[in-house]
């Protein structure tokens, strides 16, 4: 791949002294014929993040340029708002002042009719804003910002064109085919290009982890700080109790202070300032960081009115039409910003996170909707009845005579009544049977993280409230929190974040490592089991991490499994390989005592209703069979063929499916998979996926999609298995232990079933 016929010249990268790790300052970059633009690459983080990854995810040159162009909508917002303030005669518009048309009008009844031009002031009056200094100041500020954005769009156009050339000439990917290539395929071509051309990195061999570290350098720090509860996003408020508050504005300020703003801890985009790596002056550095946070908080407080006005205008113009078209859309839920950071694996790209949480949207919505208040249900039914009755009468009168609409506020009443009926949407379906424990298991399969105290308490309101912190209403996220953000953010920075200055300094000193050819990264992102493993997820002696050093909720272990599955050609380091090998042995051992995969698939009548998945692919069926399994076989049930299904747990069911999955379609079609997470005991030709494999081998696009589905299902099964195993991989015994002890381990992982539902 990418075999260039001629090597015409080499050009030295300019200005690398400030933007590249040691060894890359004097790096030579090959510039083959037709690719003279490569020497413009000045930052390798930017190269991998923006040039390679974002260009692929945003579907190429045309889509990116149109997105950039329409980001200039500030001009429209400012112009339209100024027009509404200065150019509209509201007394005429609201008919508070009569208008008498003296011109020739054919219909005398139209003489007093108000037209749109009547409500607009003349041009001279509209443009007479010299006396209003406040509006002039806002217009000047908006104009300066818009000109800055325009210059940035022009520069991006030139950069995107060079990126386009790189994809076409170097990676051999045409723009009309870009959407058909997965990120893994683009990444493989980039690694091959580096191996052949020694393109732009000091290391001879470029690994998948190197690329991920470049793209996710700062995001891995953010994930780690949320995991260690370092950032002040949990607020204790009167009456409301524990509230999670993390908005785009607050997150932007965190990143500005820590990573790339003036006075930040990083001296450039790849290197932590050396003084923060030494422990001698930690108190002085904490005071310095505290002053930076104070100044940033005061700046936010000073700019609060301007930001608040912009937030209100943007929310109004963005969501008014959505509310009119779909009033129930604000009653829907979305993953909160905090939830995305809390649930994110180390080294998980944006599209991987988006896809995983997207698959978990329906199960989580179903779980949240399973909680209803009987009192609110009664109130909602009556409100809907009264509102519907009045609305029905108004609609009938309007149909009978359209002049009813001319009555003052009648249209407003119809709109308000319609919205009221839509809001009264918490009337539960009387035919719905709910099982919180089972639904929460479905949620776990996709979000991969669940606190231990959720187990057996899925029907508790406390558990539901904690899930709601991750899965919020859109109205709460977009309207309430984002509008309050300009007011709340300064106080969080000044009174909460400043108090954590010393902890932040210690965190970056203790959890920053330098990687050759990559720069400084968060040590958690290395997924080092020995350094950051959680003892409750490992055997004794596998980890040296203290409580301060270990990642919470098994994030190191789950992140390692996720990255290994998503990047099957990556060779993990020794400690990680040992962990994977032990997990493989444990799964294989538990699978021998668990039910067969064929039996699971044939005896899972609840999987369809629980998953509500209409796709019905092999990967979905495997996952659904495990999710439905605890309810079906907890005490041993009789199958359709009159065989008694023995009692088993989700852990043993997941182990059985994982063992068979290792020899299924995914393992057979994955190109160049150099290591398997699971043992192989069945030939691919004898698996249930043999027929599917023969059908899709000739289609690259469908094969890649199927591989991605099986990879996601495999990771979901690992998450279920690792959570459901009560020893949490920490009390592993040797395979040579007697069968009696193993049965105790398996029986101890039986999840507590809900007794309050109607499963």
UniProtKB/TrEMBL annotation:
Function: Phospholipid scramblase involved in autophagy. Cycles between the preautophagosomal structure/phagophore assembly site (PAS) and the cytoplasmic vesicle pool and supplies membrane for the growing autophagosome. Lipid scramblase activity plays a key role in preautophagosomal structure/phagophore assembly by distributing the phospholipids that arrive through ATG2 from the cytoplasmic to the luminal leaflet of the bilayer, thereby driving autophagosomal membrane expansion.
Membrane topology per record: Multi-pass membrane protein
Main location per the UniProt record: membrane
GO BP annotation list: autophagy of mitochondrion; lipid transport; piecemeal microautophagy of the nucleus; protein localization to phagophore assembly site; reticulophagy
GO CC terms in record: autophagosome; phagophore assembly site membrane
Compartments reported by the entry: Preautophagosomal structure membrane
Domain of life: Eukaryota
Compositionally skewed regions (Acidic residues) per UniProt: 735-744
Stretches the record annotates as Disordered: 735-759
Similarity remark: Belongs to the ATG9 family.
One Pfam family it belongs to: ATG9
Lineage: Eukaryota, Metazoa, Chordata, Craniata, Vertebrata
Segments traversing the membrane: 134-151, 292-317, 375-397, 409-427
InterPro entries: Autophagy-rel_prot_9
The name this protein goes by in its record: Autophagy-related protein 9
Biased composition regions of type Polar residues, renumbered to the chain: 745-759
């Amino acid at each position: 791949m990418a075999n260039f016929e001629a090597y015409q010249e080499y050009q030295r990268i300019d200005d690398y002294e400030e933007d590249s790790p040691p060894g890359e300052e004097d790096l030579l970059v090959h510039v083959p014929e037709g690719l003279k633009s490569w020497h413009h690459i000045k930052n390798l983080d930017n190269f991998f993040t923006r040039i390679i990854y974002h260009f692929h995810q945003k579907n190429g040159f045309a889509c990116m340029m149109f997105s950039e162009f329409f980001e200039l909508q500030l001009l429209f917002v400012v112009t339209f708002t100024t027009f509404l303030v200065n150019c509209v005669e509201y007394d005429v518009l609201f008919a508070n002042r009569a208008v008498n048309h003296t011109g020739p009008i054919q219909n005398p009844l139209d003489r007093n009719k108000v037209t749109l031009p009547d409500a607009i002031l003349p041009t001279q009056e509209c443009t007479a804003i010299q006396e209003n200094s406040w509006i002039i100041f806002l217009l000047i500020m908006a104009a300066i910002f818009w000109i800055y954005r325009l210059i940035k769009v022009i520069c991006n156009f030139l950069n995107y064109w060079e990126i386009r050339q790189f994809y076409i000439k170097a990676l051999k990917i045409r723009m009309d085919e870009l959407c058909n290539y997965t990120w893994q395929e683009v990444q493989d071509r980039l690694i091959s290009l580096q191996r052949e051309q020694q393109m732009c990195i000091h290391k001879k061999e470029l690994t998948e982890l190197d690329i991920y570290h470049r793209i996710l350098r700062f995001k891995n720090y953010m994930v780690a700080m949320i995991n260690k509860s370092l950032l002040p996003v949990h607020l204790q408020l009167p009456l409301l109790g524990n509230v999670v508050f993390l908005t785009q504005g607050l997150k932007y300020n965190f990143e500005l202070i820590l990573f790339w703003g003036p006075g930040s801890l990083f001296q450039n985009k790849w290197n932590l300032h050396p003084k923060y790596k030494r422990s001698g002056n930690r108190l002085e550095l904490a005071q310095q960081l505290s002053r930076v946070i104070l100044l940033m908080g005061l700046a936010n407080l000073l700019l609060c009115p301007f930001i608040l006005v912009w937030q209100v205008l943007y929310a109004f113009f963005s969501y008014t039409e959505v509310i009119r078209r779909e009033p129930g859309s604000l009653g829907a839920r979305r993953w909160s910003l905090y939830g995305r950071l809390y649930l994110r694996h180390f080294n998980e790209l944006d599209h991987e996170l988006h896809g995983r949480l997207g698959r978990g949207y329906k199960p989580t919505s179903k779980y949240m909707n399973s909680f209803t208040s009987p009192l609110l249900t009664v109130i909602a039914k009556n409100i809907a009845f009264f509102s519907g009755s009045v609305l029905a009468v108004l609609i009938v009168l309007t149909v009978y005579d359209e002049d009813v609409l001319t009555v003052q506020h009648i249209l407003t009443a119809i709109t308000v009544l319609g919205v009221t009926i839509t809001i009264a949407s918490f009337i539960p379906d009387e035919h719905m049977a709910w099982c919180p424990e089972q639904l929460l298991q479905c949620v776990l399969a996709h979000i991969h993280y669940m606190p231990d105290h959720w187990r057996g308490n899925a029907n508790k309101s406390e558990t539901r409230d904690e899930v709601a912190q991750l899965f919020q209403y859109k109205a709460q996220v977009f309207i309430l929190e984002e509008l309050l953000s300009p007011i709340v953010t300064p106080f969080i920075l000044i009174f909460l974040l400043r108090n954590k200055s010393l902890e932040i300094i210690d965190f970056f000193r203790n959890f920053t490592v330098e990687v050759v050819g990559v720069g400084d990264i968060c040590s958690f992102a290395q997924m080092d089991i020995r350094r950051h493993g959680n003892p409750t997820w490992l055997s004794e002696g596998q980890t040296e991490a203290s409580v301060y050093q270990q990642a919470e909720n098994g994030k190191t272990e789950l992140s390692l499994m996720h990255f290994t599955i998503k990047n099957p050609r990556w060779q993990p380091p020794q400690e990680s390989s040992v962990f994977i090998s032990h997990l493989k042995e444990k799964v294989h051992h538990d699978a021998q005592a668990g039910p067969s995969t064929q039996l699971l698939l044939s005896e899972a009548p609840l999987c369809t209703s629980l998953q509500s998945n209409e796709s019905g692919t092999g990967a979905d069926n495997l996952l659904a069979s495990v999710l439905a399994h605890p309810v079906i076989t907890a005490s041993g049930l009789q199958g359709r063929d009159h065989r008694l299904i023995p009692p088993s747990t989700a852990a043993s069911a997941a182990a059985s499916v994982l063992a068979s999955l290792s020899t299924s379609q995914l393992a057979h079609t994955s190109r160049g998979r150099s290591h398997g997470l699971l043992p192989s005991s069945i030939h691919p030709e004898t698996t249930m996926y043999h027929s599917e494999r023969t059908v899709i081998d000739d289609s690259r696009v469908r094969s890649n999609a199927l591989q991605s589905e099986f990879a996601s299902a495999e990771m979901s099964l690992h998450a279920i298995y690792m959570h459901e195993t009560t020893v949490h991989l920490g009390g592993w015994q040797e395979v040579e232990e007697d069968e009696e002890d193993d049965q105790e381990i398996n029986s101890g992982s039986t999840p507590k079933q809900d007794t309050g539902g109607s499963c």
